[in-house]
Write a structure and sequence with these properties.
With 1459 residues, the chain is an alpha+beta fold. Helix 10 runs parallel beside helix 34. The longest helix is centred in the last third of the chain and has 39 residues. The N terminus and C terminus are likely disordered.
Length: 1459
C-alpha cells in the first residue's frame, strides 16, 4: 500500500505509548495462576490473546499499542488553514513577499494600497492551498474506505466471530480470514483450512509479485483436525517491536508450562496481502495500523530537487542582491536630491509637530519603500508556473504511445513531478543486468551431467528462430517428431493441451476498494496470473543424447550393468530429481491456475507390482554404491519422524517414451549415431526390463500443470526436468510427488527445505526416497559456492579420486563455457545422510528455529553443517535473453556522451559476455579486469592502469570562440573517456576500494574508461558506487533496475528508473519513473529529457529576464521623480502584467515547444550533450539575459521619454505608453524563442495582447476614483486616438529586439552549433533530411576512425611497463612461450571435440579455440611486487605481438590486468 506515515496524531500516540510502556515494564502481567514475570517492553512486544483467560491482561496492554485505523492525511478540518499556511511559508519567496506586505502596512512606507499589496501573495497561497486540500481530501476518502472495510473478529463476550471495521481491530484480537480476502493487519497464522497448515498469499500490494507465497501455521498448530477455538489458546506471544524489515520477524509463544515455541516470518501474514487458495484461516493480530510493516515501509516518495531548481535558487539570491543595490541607489539618490535644497521641498510633508525626518532615517525609509516598489524583481509567479509546466510535461510523457508496452498493457509511470528536466542532463547511467538489460525470461539452454556436456543444439535452434505468439488461438507447439508408436502414429511433443498461459498483464497493485483489476491485453483477452509461464520459458526441446540416456535409465533398472553405465544412469536420474525436488514451486492446473494441486490425479494401475519396482531400485542402489561414497557424519543428534510413502503408477502416454522394447528404442535411426553410447545400449533387451517398458500405459491425458515459482530460474529448471519426463505433479508442506519417465509416481517425504538467500547463495531440500528409504540432500546454487562445498576427493579410493577430480575439472570447464556464452550457471549436488546423522541435525535445526537470541546466526550454522561434503551431479546453463533494442539504446547513449556502468550480482564471465552482446564493450576495446582483495595490490593495479591509460588520453579543452575566432586561452579542461578502454571489477575489489580509501584513484581511472562493469555486487555496493560517482564527480546520475536489490541504487541516484519486470514492483515503487522495457529509456532520456530541459530552462531564463526588464522601468523613473518611490504605472496594471498578461505564453511554450523533432533527436543522439553541458541555463546565459533585460528596459523607457520630452502629458499617460511597449517587447521576445509554432502559441500571444487592451479599456473607463489620489480614468481610450502612441508601439519593440534578432541571425553564419544544424535539418524534406543525417554520421565516423590508432597504441606501452616492473623479480617470473600455449590449446581442443560431437558444437569449438589461441599468444607474466605484493601476486595478460593482435577480427581484450 503506497501510504505515507506522516500523521502528527500517530507520532504523538507513539511517543505517549513509549512513555506508558516504560511504566508497564515493572508491572506483573500474568494472572495469579501463572508465575509472575516481568517483560522488557522496550525490547520485545508482549501480546495477550483477547479471550476470557487473558481478559485482564489483554485490556491492560493492548491500549498502549496502535489501533488499526490509519490516518495518512496531513491536515484536519481545524488545522488545515494554519498548518497549510505554515508549510507554505517554508518557501523563502513566500516569506519574502509576506515581509513586504507587512512593511507596506506602515504609513511611512506605504507605496501601494495595503489591500492591493496582499493580492499577489494571497493568490499564490490560495492556489497552493486548494491543490493541497484536494490531495488531502483524496487521502482522507481513501483512509475512510480502508478503515471501514469489514473483517471477522472474535468477540469473547459472544464467543463467535463478528464482522467489524478494520479500524476497530486491536492487537491480540483473533481474526478469521476467507479466501481472496485482504489481510487487515499483521497477523500470526494459527490455523489454516489446508490439511498441511499452509496459507497462500499474493503480495502484489507490497512488492508487486504475482506469484504466490506460502505461509506456514506456527509449529504445534499445523496438525489440528478440528476448527481453531480461540478460548483454548493459552499462550503468550513475545515478538520483536515494530520495524520496516519485510524479511525479518522473530518471536516465540510461551505456553502455560513456560516452554517456548519459536516462529519467524514464514508464519506472518502482512497487512495488504491477499489470501489465495485457502478457504479459511485464523490468526492473532501482532501489529496494527501504522505499526504494520506495510505502513512502516511506505513513508511516501522522497523529495528530490532538480538541478535547474538548485541553479534557480542561486539566481534568486543574485536577484535579491540586485534588488538591494537598486534600493540602495534609490535611498542614496533620495538623500542627495533632498540635500540640494536649503529648505525641505513641498512634496516632503512634516509630521504633526511640524518636524521633518532626519536624513539617515529618511534614507532608511526610502530603502524600504524602494523594496516594496521593486518587489516584482523576485519572480513569485515563477514557482506556480514551473509546477504547471511540469504537470503538462508529465502528461505528454505519460501519453507517449512509444513508451507503451502492449504485451503487458503498461505505460510509463511518472511518479516524481519535480525532476522531469533532470532527464535531459544525465551524464552517468547505472544499470542492473538481469531483468533490466535482459528479459528475465529464463530459458533452459544447456547442462552438464557427471562431466558430460549436453549442448541442446535443437533447443538453441528453436530459440534463435522463436517468435513468441501473442494470440490466444495458439493451442499447440510442435518442435520435433519422435519414433512412431505401436500403431504407427507419430508421437509429437505437445507441451500444451490447453491454450497457452499468458503472463500477467500488469503487476501494478490497485488499492481502491482492495480489488486488483485485470486489464485486457491484445485481442481483448485476459492473461493468466501465473508468473514465469510464457511459452518460450515452458517449452524446452530435449537434447537427443541426453534423451537417450534418460530413456535407457528407465529401461535398465533390472540389468546389472557395468560400473560406468550404472554410475551414469544414477547421475542422470539424480540430476533431474534434484531439478524437480529442489525448489519451492507450487503446482496448479491450467484450468484453475490459482488452485494448488495437493492430491494425486486418478491413475490406471500399471502392469507391474510395487514390490517389483522396489526390488529394481534396490539392485540399482547396490550397483551404484561404488560411485556414491559416504558422507561424513555430523556431531549433533536428535530425532525426527516421517509419514508413510506411497507409490502409484502412471497411466498417461509418454511422448518421448512410447511403449516398445528397449532394443527398439536404442536402434531408432532418428537419433545421431554419435549420441548413442554402446555401453548404454548393452543389456537393453533384458526380459524384465522389456516387461516394464511394455507395460500398458494407456489412459486419458492428464491436465496441463502450471508452476508457480518464486523466481524465473526455478521455473526454468522445473520446465526443463519436465521436458525429460521428470514431472512435478504435486507439492505439499510434507510431500512432493514426481512422475518418472516410465510413468511411475514417486512421493518423496519433504523433511526440510532450506530456502535460498543471498548470503548462502544456494538452497537445499532434505527428502526421504520412497523406495530406498534413503535420506537425501539435494542442493543447487552458485558454482562459486557449491564447488567449495564438495567432498574432498582424496578421501575416496584411488580410482574414484581420479574419476571425481575429472568430473569436477570437466564441469568447471563447462561452467566457463557457459559463462563465456553469457548463461546463468547453477551447480547441482547431493548428499546421502544416515538416519543418525539426520536426527542429530534435525535436533540442532529445531533448537536454532526456536532460539530467540542469535537466531539467524544459528540457522546459518545449521545450514552450513548440512550443505557440506556434497557429491557433484552436474550444472545448468540458463539463458536470460537480451531485451529487444538494448544494443541500439546503449549505442545511442554512447553517442550522446552518457557513461554507462553496469552493476550486477552475476558472475564476472557472464556479465562480461552480456556486456559484449549489448555493445557495452566493443570487440576492439581494451578491457582492464581488476580482481583483488589486497589493498596494496589494488592500489598498485590502479596506479599502473591509470598511468598507461593517461598516456593514450587526449585532454579536450574548452576554448573561447567569439564569432569564429578562437582565443589562445581556455578556462577549463575536461577529461574525455577513451573510446577503447573498458574497466571490469568485482565485488571484493569494490570492498577493497571502499575500505582502503582508494575511491579517488578508482574514479580517476573510471573517468578515462568509456564503460565500467561491476560484477558480484551486493545491493549496498550498488548504492555506494552511485553515491561515490554522484558526490565526488558532481555529475547527474540515473539508476535503472527492476528488482528489490536495485532499490537502494535507484534511491541514491538523481533520477531513479524502475522497470515493471518479472521481479515484482519494489523497484517501481522506489523510482521516479517506471517503464516496462529498457529500450523505452532511449526516448525518455534523449527526447523527452531534452525537451523538458530545454523548455524549462528557457522558461526560467525568460521569467528572470521578464521581471528584471519590467522592474527596471520603475527604477529608471526614480531618476526623474526625486527618488521618491513613486510609480508611473497603475498598481493593478503592474499586478496583472506578471500574473496574466505575460505568464501564459511562456507556460505554454514550456509544455509544447520542441526545438528539435523526436526523429532528429533519436537519429543524432549527440544533440543530447547540450543538456549535459547546461548550455541553455548556466551562469553565462543568465547574465546575458539580465544584460539584455537592462538594455530593453532602457529602450522601452527612454524612447517614449524622448518622444514625449517637453510635452504636457500626465504621469499615467506616460506610464501606460511605457507599459504597452514593454508588453509588446516581452511577448515578441517570447515569440522569437519559440521553435515550433502551433495554433496554441499564436492564440496565447495574441490573446495576451487583446486581454491587456480589453482590461485597460474597461479599467480606465470604470475606475474614476478607485485609486485615490491618482486617476487613470480614460487614459487608454485617449491613447488610441493619438498617432504618436502607435508610432512608439512600432518603433520601440523593434529597436529593443533588434540586437537579439541580429545575434540569432549571425549565429548560423560564424559558428553553427549542432543544435542549429539539427534545426536546419528539421526543415528539410524527408529524403533530403535522411541524406544529410547519413552525411553527418559519416563525418563523425571518419573523425572517430582517425583517432583509432592512438587507442590501438595503448597496448604497447602497457607491455613495456609490465616488463619494466617485472625485470627485478627473480624466482617469481613464469613465462609461457608460444609452444606451451599451443600444446595447452591442443589438449583443450581434443577435450572439446570429445564432448561436442555435432556440427554446431564443432563450430562453437572452433570459434572458442580461435579465441583461446589468440589469448594464448599473449605473454603472461607473474611476479611479486616488492614485499607488499608477495602474498598476492598478479599476472598481466599482455600482447607479445601488437600487430597480430590488431589483425584479429574478434579481439575482445588485448590487455587485462587480473589478479
Amino acid at each position: 500500500m503506497a501510504l505515507s506515515v506522516d500523521s502528527a496524531l500517530y507520532r504523538w500516540q507513539h511517543l505517549w505509548r513509549v512513555k506508558g510502556s516504560s511504566q508497564l515494564e515493572s508491572a506483573p502481567l500474568l494472572s495469579s495462576d501463572h508465575e509472575r514475570k516481568k517483560y522488557d517492553f522496550n525490547r520485545w512486544r508482549v501480546i495477550f490473546p483477547s479471550n476470557e483467560r487473558f481478559q485482564k491482561e489483554s485490556s491492560k496492554v493492548s491500549r498502549f499499542y496502535s489501533g488499526n485505523g490509519i490516518q495518512t492525511t496531513k491536515y484536519t478540518l481545524l488545522t488545515f488553514l494554519p498548518q497549510n499556511i505554515f508549510h507554505q511559508f517554508h518557501r523563502l519567496a513566500n516569506l519574502y513577499f509576506l515581509i513586504l506586505v507587512i512593511i507596506n502596512w506602515f504609513p511611512q512606507l506605504e507605496v501601494f494600497h495595503r489591500e492591493l499589496t496582499m493580492l499577489p501573495l494571497a493568490a499564490v497561497l490560495l492556489i497552493i492551498a486548494i491543490k493541497d486540500g484536494v490531495e488531502d481530501w483524496k487521502r482522507h476518502r481513501f483512509d475512510q474506505q480502508i478503515n471501514f472495510s469489514k473483517t471477522k473478529v472474535y468477540i469473547k463476550s459472544q464467543k463467535t466471530y463478528i464482522e467489524k471495521c478494520w479500524k476497530d481491530v486491536c492487537v491480540g484480537d483473533f481474526v478469521q480470514l476467507q479466501c481472496n480476502e485482504i489481510i487487515p493487519a499483521d497477523i500470526l497464522l494459527l490455523y489454516s483450512s489446508d490439511q498441511n497448515g499452509i496459507c497462500h498469499l499474493e503480495t502484489a500490494s507490497l512488492d508487486g509479485e504475482t506469484n504466490l507465497k506460502q505461509r506456514q501455521v506456527v509449529k504445534g498448530f499445523s496438525n489440528q483436525n478440528a476448527e481453531f477455538d480461540p478460548e483454548l489458546f493459552q499462550n503468550i506471544i513475545v515478538c520483536e517491536n515494530p520495524n520496516n524489515d519485510l524479511n525479518r520477524f522473530k518471536g516465540y509463544m510461551e505456553q502455560p508450562d513456560l516452554t517456548r515455541i519459536g516462529f519467524n516470518r514464514e508464519s506472518l501474514l502482512l497487512r495488504g496481502c491477499t489470501m489465495r487458495n485457502t478457504e479459511a484461516a485464523v490468526g492473532i493480530v501482532i501489529y496494527a495500523g501504522h505499526e504494520t510493516k506495510a505502513m512502516l515501509n511506505n513513508s511516501g516518495p522522497r523529495y528530490k530537487r532538480s538541478k535547474i531548481e538548485k541553479r534557480m535558487n542561486v539566481d534568486i539570491f543574485f536577484c535579491v542582491g540586485l534588488l538591494i543595490v537598486m534600493c540602495l541607489v534609490g535611498a542614496v539618490g533620495h538623500g542627495i536630491w533632498n540635500g540640494l535644497f536649503f529648505d525641505p521641498p513641498l512634496y516632503i510633508l512634516p509630521d504633526r509637530n511640524g518636524n521633518y525626518l532626519a536624513p539617515a532615517l529618511a534614507g532608511f525609509y526610502m530603502f524600504l519603500t524602494m523594496i516594496i516598489l521593486l518587489q516584482i524583481l523576485i519572480p513569485i509567479s515563477l514557482y506556480v508556473s514551473i509546477e504547471l509546466v511540469k504537470l503538462g510535461q508529465v502528461f505528454f510523457i505519460h501519453n507517449d504511445i512509444d513508451l507503451y508496452y502492449e504485451e503487458q498493457d503498461l505505460s510509463i509511470q511518472c511518479r516524481a513531478l519535480n525532476i522531469t528536466e533532470d532527464l535531459g542532463q544525465i551524464q552517468y547511467i547505472f544499470s542492473d543486468k538481469t531483468g533490466t538489460l535482459t528479459e528475465n525470461k529464463m530459458v533452459f539452454r544447456r547442462c552438464t551431467i557427471n562431466g558430460k556436456e549436453f549442448s541442446h543444439q535443437e533447443n538453441a535452434k528453436r530459440l534463435e528462430t522463436y517468435k513468441e505468439q501473442d494470440s490466444d488461438s495458439e493451442d499447440w507447439m510442435k518442435h520435433f517428431t519422435l519414433p512412431s508408436n505401436k500403431g504407427g502414429e507419430t508421437a509429437t511433443s505437445t507441451r500444451m493441451a490447453t491454450k497457452p498461459l499468458r503472463r500477467s498483464q500488469s503487476a501494478r497493485a490497485h488499492f481502491q476498494g482492495h480489488v486488483r483489476h485485470r486489464s485486457l491485453g491484445r485481442c481483448g483477452s485476459s492473461r493468466s496470473q501465473v508468473a514465469f509461464s510464457s511459452t518460450i520459458e515452458k517449452n524446452v526441446t530435449p537434447d537427443n543424447r541426453l534423451l537417450m540416456k534418460v530413456r535407457n535409465a528407465s529401461c535398465q533398472l533390472e540389468s546389472f550393468t557395468p560400473f560406468m553405465s550404472a554410475k551414469t544412469t544414477s547421475s542422470v536420474t539424480d540430476f533431474f530429481l534434484a531439478l524437480t525436488l529442489c525448489n519451492t514451486v507450487v503446482v496448479s492446473t491450467a484450468t484453475d491456475p490459482r488452485q494448488r494441486v495437493t492430491t494425486l490425479p486418478l491413475m490406471k494401475p500399471a502392469g507391474i507390482s510395487l514390490e517389483r519396482i522396489h526390488q529394481l531400485f534396490q539392485r540399482l542402489k547396490l550397483s551404484s554404491l561404488n560411485y556414491s561414497f559416504k558422507s561424513a557424519q555430523s556431531n549433533t543428534g536428535g530425532s525426527f519422524s516421517t509419514e508413510s510413502t506411497r507409490v502409484c503408477a502412471d497411466s498417461e502416454k509418454r511422448n518421448y517414451f512410447p511403449s516398445q522394447s528397449c532394443s527398439t528404442l536404442t536402434d531408432y535411426d532418428s537419433f545421431q549415431e554419435d549420441s548413442i553410447i554402446p555401453e548404454e545400449a548393452s543389456g537393453a533387451s533384458d526380459g524384465c526390463l522389456r516387461e516394464i517398458c511394455e507395460t500398458d500405459t494407456g489412459g486419458p491425458l492428464q491436465p496441463e500443470f502450471c508452476y508457480e515459482a518464486e523466481s524465473p530460474d526455478e521455473a526454468a529448471l522445473v520446465h526443463a526436468a519436465r521436458a525429460y519426463q521428470f514431472t512435478l505433479v504435486s507439492r505439499t508442506a510434507e510431500q512432493v510427488t514426481v512422475r518418472l519417465p516410465e510413468g511411475t509416481l514417486l512421493t518423496f517425504d519433504l523433511l526440510y527445505t532450506l530456502g535460498f538467500d543471498s548470503n548462502r547463495k544456494r538452497m537445499s531440500v532434505v527428502v526421504r526416497h520412497p523406495l530406498t528409504k534413503e535420506i537425501i540432500v539435494y542442493t543447487k546454487g552458485a558454482d562459486s559456492v557449491i564447488m567449495d562445498l564438495l567432498e574432498d576427493p582424496a578421501r575416496a579410493t584411488m580410482t574414484m579420486e581420479k574419476r571425481i577430480r575429472k568430473v569436477i575439472v570437466q564441469t568447471q570447464k563447462h561452467l566457463d563455457w557457459y559463462a563465456q556464452d553469457g548463461l546463468r550457471t547453477l551447480c547441482i549436488a547431493k548428499k546421502v545422510l544416515s538416519e543418525d546423522d539426520f536426527r542429530k541435525w534435525a535436533n540442532f535445526r529445531h533448537e536454532a528455529e526456536t532460539a530467540i537470541d542469535n537466531r539467524e546466526e544459528l540457522l546459518m550454522e545449521t545450514a552450513h553443517h548440512l550443505e557440506t561434503k556434497l557429491t557433484l551431479l552436474g550444472a545448468t546453463g540458463i539463458e536470460d535473453r537480451l531485451q529487444d533494442g538494448v544494443p541500439d539504446t546503449i549505442a545511442a547513449f554512447r553517442e550522446a556522451g552518457v557513461q554507462i556502468w553496469v552493476l550486477t550480482g552475476d558472475k564476472q564471465e557472464t556479465a562480461v559476455n552480456i556486456a559484449y552482446s549489448c555493445k557495452l564493450l566493443g570487440q576492439r576495446d581494451t578491457v582492464f579486469t581488476i580482481n583483488t582483495e589486497s589493498k596494496e595490490t589494488c592500489e598498485s593495479l590502479l596506479d599502473i592502469t591509470l598511468e598507461e591509460v593517461k598516456k593514450a588520453q587526449v585532454i579536450a579543452r574548452t576554448m573561447w570562440n567569439v564569432f569564429g575566432i578562437k582565443l589562445p586561452f581556455s578556462w577549463s579542461s575536461t577529461v574525455t573517456p577513451n573510446p577503447a578502454v573498458g574497466l571490469v571489477v568485482d565485488g571484493s575489489t569494490l570492498n577493497t576500494i571502499f575500505q582502503g580509501q582508494l575511491e579517488h584513484k578508482f574514479l580517476e581511472l573510471a573517468k578515462y574508461s568509456r564503460s565500467v562493469l561491476c560484477c558480484r555486487c551486493t545491493p549496498l555496493q550498488k548504492s555506494m558506487v552511485v553515491k561515490l560517482v554522484r558526490s565526488h564527480l558532481k555529475v547527474m546520475t540515473l539508476a535503472i533496475g527492476d528488482g528489490a536489490n536495485d532499490v537502494s541504487m535507484i534511491q541514491a541516484a538523481d533520477v531513479g528508473i524502475g522497470i515493471s519486470g518479472q521481479e515484482g514492483m519494489q523497484a517501481v515503487m522506489a523510482s521516479d519513473f517506471a517503464i516496462s522495457r529498457f529500450k523505452h529509456l532511449k526516448k525518455l532520456v534523449l527526447v523527452h529529457g531534452h525537451w523538458c530541459y530545454s523548455r524549462l530552462a528557457k522558461m526560467v531564463i525568460y521569467f528572470f529576464y521578464k521581471n528584471v526588464a519590467y522592474v527596471n522601468l520603475l527604477f529608471w523613473y526614480q531618476f526623474f521623480c526625486a527618488f521618491s518611490g513613486a510609480s508611473m504605472i497603475d498598481y493593478w496594471q503592474m499586478i496583472f502584467f506578471n500574473m496574466f498578461f505575460t505568464s501564459v505564453p511562456p507556460i505554454l511554450s514550456g509544455v509544447l515547444d520542441k526545438d528539435i523533432s523526436a526523429e532528429i533527436l533519436l537519429s543524432l543522439p549527440e544533440l543530447y550533450k547540450s543538456g549535459q553541458n547546461s548550455e541553455i541555463y548556466k551562469p553565462l546565459t543568465f547574465c546575458v539575459a539580465i544584460l539584455e533585460a537592462f538594455y530593453q528596459s532602457l529602450i522601452c523607457f527612454f524612447v517614449p521619454y524622448l518622444v514625449y520630452f517637453d510635452s504636457d502629458i500626465g504621469v499615467f499617460t506616460f506610464g501606460t505608453t511605457v507599459n504597452t511597449v514593454s508588453l509588446f517587447t516581452i511577448l515578441f521576445h517570447q515569440a522569437l524563442e519559440v521553435k515550433t509554432w502551433t495554433l496554441f502559441h499564436g492564440i496565447t500571444i495574441i490573446g495576451s495582447i487583446l486581454l491587456y487592451f480589453i482590461f485597460s479599456i474597461i479599467y480606465n473607463a470604470a475606475c474614476i476614483i478607485c485609486n485615490h489620489p491618482t486617476n487613470p480614468y480614460w487614459i487608454m481610450e485617449m491613447q488610441f486616438s493619438n498617432p504618436i502612441f502607435y508610432l512608439i508601439c512600432l518603433i520601440t519593440p523593434t529597436v529593443a529586439l533588434l540586437p537579439r534578432y541580429l545575434i540569432m541571425t549571425v549565429q548560423g553564419s560564424f559558428q553553427v552549433s549542432p543544435i542549429l544544424k539539427a534545426q536546419y535539418l528539421d526543415k528539410l524534406p524527408k529524403e533530403q533530411q535522411d541524406q544529410e543525417i547519413q552525411k553527418w554520421k559519416s563525418r563523425k565516423q571518419a573523425t572517430s576512425t582517425a583517432s583509432t590508432p592512438a587507442s590501438n597504441e595503448l597496448t604497447q606501452p602497457i607491455a613495456n611497463v609490465g616488463m619494466s616492473i617485472f625485470d627485478h623479480a627473480e624466482a617469481g617470473i613464469a613465462r609461457y612461450e608460444n609452444g606451451g600455449c599451443q600444446n595447452l590449446y591442443s589438449s583443450e581442443q581434443d577435450i572439446l571435440g570429445e564432448w561436442m560431437p555435432n556440427t554446431e558444437s564443432s563450430d562453437h569449438t572452433r570459434s572458442w579455440a580461435e579465441e583461446e589461441a589468440g589469448a594464448a599468444s599473449f605473454l603472461s607474466t607473474e611476479a611479486s611486487l616488492g614485499q607488499r605484493l608477495t602474498a598476492k601476486p598478479f599476472s598481466g595478460c599482455l600482447p607479445s605481438d601488437t600487430g597480430s593482435s590488431v589483425r584479429r577480427s574478434h579481439r575482445r581484450s588485448v590487455s587485462a590486468v587480473t589478479l
